[in-house]
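Pinned message: reference record for DNA repair protein RecN
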Amino acid sequence: MLERLTIRDLSVIERAEIPFAPGLNTLTGETGAGKSLLVQAASLLVGEKADGDAVRHGADAAIVEGEFRLEGESARRVGTLFAEWGLEFDGETVIVRREVTGAGRSRASVNQSPVTLAALKRLGEALADLHGQHEHQSLLKPEAGLLTLDRLASLDGDRTRFAETLAAWREAGADLERLEVSLATFAERSDYLRHAARELDEATLVAGEEEDLARDAARLAHADRLRELAGLALARLGEDDPAAGDQLAAAERALDQAASLDPGLGDLLPPLREARIAAEETARSLARYLDGLEADPAALERIEARRDLIARLTRKYRRPV
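Predicted structure (tokens):
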């Protein structure tokens, strides 16, 4: 509520200080007694437009100061504004000062701190509601009527507690909604991971399997050509007449006889002997290889299906499996 209104050099008022009591205060008087000047002074405190013509003749500026005592919702709203502006607020008292020069320039301060006119207007919405003839303002708003009824019934404290409880309930509801979303996301993720684990278990993957499968697939896919080439190599080593192995053995015997006549040739015998042994071992290995080499379309199909499965799982889970 407005507790005190001080006016200096406003229109015909040189100086006036008007205290207000709690509850309803009524000012009466004949037309021209100055009632409208009090309303004008109050309007300056809540950020209304300033007019240099309102300055008393002979004065440099008109000054209006109002002391407000707040509680409940009004105190909360003002506290929020003060926190936004970085001003100190004791939770109860607000002193607003407005100075208007004869040139129409205006300065305002709140609790001795300068503020802009825009800030004063915002503060005025929380401090007071002015009603003039043919003016409705917030009276047309249902929430303003409810607020007035709450004040008349001295329910400011209950209203504040209800607002706090409602805000807490809404916050809890928002937290619950976020939790439900998180739980749903967790459930989806859990289902996905269970499915992935089951799918990977059923695949029975083995480390290095893809490389082995690639070699087996290449061997089966080219079985006929491999048999042709490996058979040709085996024939040259041990089956043709003369075979490479036989030729190397004959060369070894001849060199051995020559070394008996010229010992210096003996140094050539070991590498020749190693070449013969290597040729014989290679021929035996090729024979075993050819014995196990068969074209098997069914086996090739199984291997390719296995490789496709591994490739699909690798793409699906975006990592080697």
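Pinned by admin. Summary line: The first strand starts at residue 2 and ends at 10.
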